[in-house]
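Hey,

Quick one before I head out. I ran the complex with pyridoxal-5'-phosphate overnight. Inputs first:
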Amino acid sequence: MTDRTPGFNTLAIHAGATPDPTTGARATPIYQTTSFVFDDVDHAASLFGLQAFGNIYTRIGNPTCAVLEERVAALEGGTAALAVASGHAAEFLAFHALMQPGDNFVAANKLYGGSINQFNHAYKSFDWSVRWADADDPASFEALIDGRTKAIFIESIANPGGVIVDIAAVAQIAKKHKIPLIVDNTMASPYLIRPIEHGADIVIHSATKFLGGHGNSIGGVLVDAGTFDWVGDERYPMLSKPRPEYGGMVLGETFGNFAFAIATRVLGLRDLGPALSPFNAFLLLTGIETLPLRMQRQSDSTLAVARHLAGHEGVSWVSYPGLEGDRYHALAQRYCPKGAGAVFTFGVKGGYEAGVALVKRLELFSHLANIGDTRSLVIHPASTTHRQLTDEQRVAAGAGPDVVRLSIGLEDPADLIADLDRALAG
Ligand code: PLP
């Protein structure tokens, strides 16, 4: 063995996994069990009291899920991670660890439509409020911060608009105000962007998309960068105050630079319950083994398709940061020089009706509400994912009436281009 730090491709295959000590199984086994037998009563007591690490019950932790957690933490460069049932669950548990009733957070106005709904509506029940900042203007985030602001939330590459946020500039504002920066890195994946290197304190994923990569499992992951100092910070009582659930333990003091990952597990996941099934963890892990290959190939194919559409007479505009001349191209070169991801939007001439008609005519592209599959996917956001939003919110989120979103898969780009040409010809 050398003392080399393993590269990204090696980590994607090996991080967190060793051959099974009992059977020698080389692939990570699916530990399909609800519960784990304790060694003895003292062992049980120490697990429940957080004095020892180990398995109790799959809602709180599971060995297959633990491999996924360690692998994503390694790929993102974090200290620890928590795997949960969905990307939305990851967002919810992140805020649950940070927010009290009456608190607010500042979020970029260009986000996945489901996150906009979650923040605007579902979080109202907890008396958490969102303040929308201009994703293109880091200073606008600072202007919205007050004494009750507990987090800043952005997407590294925003879904569906192909917007790239200046992560380092927003991180600087978060650090100045001692507020954690949460980055949803779903669209980029750690292969293209590692937000922690640019100042993120927490990274979340819808693992449903590029991490899993095969359109077969819903899952989410939260990654703790280990960068935020919770100790003594009264604004974050889950991390800085004695917890009655654990005999007065202060999680920030006991667990140091992975306290956030612990808090989301032992207070969030344990009490609120959105656990990932071990079977889904297995499928997500298998997907991650090819993440670097898929992400590079899909980004390359996306650039080819985007270039073709940019020169097509039935298309009024293409928004893909990988294109020279795109308004986010300079940010793309800075944050994701290997490629700008596999999702982009374009405007079809003829507006809403033309968008719906195009979706109907495509054959190779599947019409569905997902991204990050091996298969190429299409959706018309205004009539589907962004339907719940007002016209104004839709346009602000990059989902106006003429917008069509593509997620480019692993097929031959020439076949995809031929399908698009035929469907655009009417
Ligand atoms: N974040 C982004 C960027 C997404 O695209 C999605 C889903 O599309 C989510 C979060 C929510 O993830 P999930 O569908 O796994 O709950």
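The chain has a mean pLDDT of 96.

Talk tomorrow,
K.
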